[in-house]
Design goal:
single chain, 147 residues, Elongation Factor Tu (Ef-tu), domain 3, two-stranded antiparallel sheet, 1 helix, 9 strands, globular
Length: 147
């Protein structure tokens, strides 16, 4: 892993279902989970939401993701999206938590874009994670890097 300092930022609330417009009741991740499982990725060990971490001034670049699921139609009437997943870790208070980068490809994502330095991570429950918290993100350099 290559480690990068980051800051937790507020996300759109779509993955967890906390979006103020209640666009995806129960959260997009819960709706997407069966499609990810069918493609070979079980996300059940992770919290049903993402932690958004800003690595600015760096920006993230995909290299060779662990898994890419092209053009997943996960909700009727909603455009198909391509998702990539990258092995990662979060280091907080000297504890490392296994994680996975959740990367909806911007070219197929109709809304809720992330700035180029923000990574969305799926992980188990991590205590005391709030916006503004400084922590470290480990990325598998063969899969993704922050430049």
């Amino acid at each position: 892993m290559e480690w990068y300092p980051g800051v937790v930022v507020v996300g759109h609330g779509v993955a967890s279902g906390r979006n103020k417009h209640d666009q995806f009741p129960g959260g997009a991740l819960a709706l997407q989970a069966p499609y990810f499982a069918a493609g070979g990725l079980d996300i059940s060990p992770y919290y049903s939401g993402t932690i958004n971490i800003d690595l600015a001034p760096r920006r993230v670049e995909l290299v060779q993701p662990h898994l890419t699921l092209p053009l997943v139609t996960w909700l009727e009437g909603y455009p198909a999206e391509t998702f990539s997943f990258v092995h990662a870790a979060i280091r907080h208070e000297d504890v490392e938590y296994p994680a996975m980068v959740f990367y909806p490809h911007p070219e197929t994502k109709p809304e809720h874009q992330q700035p180029p330095g923000v990574v969305e991570l799926m992980a188990g429950f991590i205590p005391n994670v709030v916006p503004g918290l400084h922590l470290d993100v480990g990325l598998e350099p063969a899969e993704m890097r922050a430049v």
